[in-house]
Amino acid sequence: MEQPEKALAETTFRVSLEEYMDFNLSRAEALLGKKKKAFRLTGLLCLAVSLSGLVLLLAGQHKNLFLLFAALFVLAFGAYQILYFPLLFPWMMKRSVKEAYGQSSYLQNDVTLAFYEDCFTEASAEGEKKTLGKEIAAFKSCPLYYQIDLKSGNSVLIPKKTLAAEDAERLRETYLGGRETEQNNGTEE
Questions:
Q1: Are 170 and 115 spatial neighbours (Cβ–Cβ below 8 Å)?
Q2: β-strand 136-141 against 127-132: which pairing, if any?
Q3: What pLDDT, on a 0 to 100 scale, did the predictor assign at position 60?
Q4: Which of 32, 55, 123, 160 is 20 to 30 A from 48 via CA?
């Protein structure tokens, strides 16, 4: 892709597993907030119902084996609901992200970004592409990387160690101007 004008900034980098993991975990966290609360509430309700049932069954004279197993099943389901997001989900997510990282030719090779007044170009193992500035929805500064969110829903990560903070600010101003953008995922630098 030939670009006649001089680039505002250019950088070549490789996204690390740590950066890719942080991006995916923070995106999942943002998407699953309400679902986490629903799982926790359902789990607590199941635990309360099953423990009440077990107390009544064990204290009573008449033992119903079916009801005992049902109460134990609801107890196990409630525990699963409560523990899923704090323990199981992060473990499964990390495993999945590591696998995706290892299989991605994009992430395993160098990426070169060149930023111009009205667009940026990206050269990677997947080829070259040009993205117009008007397609940028947000430019975020995260602890490990800068994140360019596109209106298509895709994101481009740029490790902070490869782009000077003043260049990042100039790019944010060039592409977003006065438009609002999220910065630092809730934390200030």
A1: no
A2: unpaired
A3: 82
A4: 32
What pLDDT is stored for residue 58 in this prediction?
85
Q: Are 14 and 180 in contact (CB under 8 A)?
A: no
* Segments in 32-164 forming alpha helices (H): 33-59, 65-83, 89-103, 105-108
C-alpha torsion sign, points 95, 97, 103, 107: negative
Amino acid at 82: I
Averaged over successive runs of 10 residues, the pLDDT of the chain (189 residues) comes to 75 96 92 89 96 88 85 96 92 95 96 95 96 94 96 96 94 80 42
pLDDT for position 64: 85
What is the enclosing helix (H) or strand (E) of 12?
Answer: strand 9-13
How many other β-carbons are positioned within 10 Å of the β-carbon of residue 146? Answer: 21
pTM for the model stands at 0.75
Helix, strand, coil percentages (3-state) for the chain, rounded to 5, are: 55, 20, 25
pLDDT for res 123? 97
- Unique residue bearing structure tokens 């699953």: 32
- Strands 119-124, 127-132: pairing is antiparallel
Size of the chain in residues: 189
Could you give the CA distance from residue 159 to residue 144 in angstroms, rounded to a whole number? 6
15 is written with which tokens?
């996204």
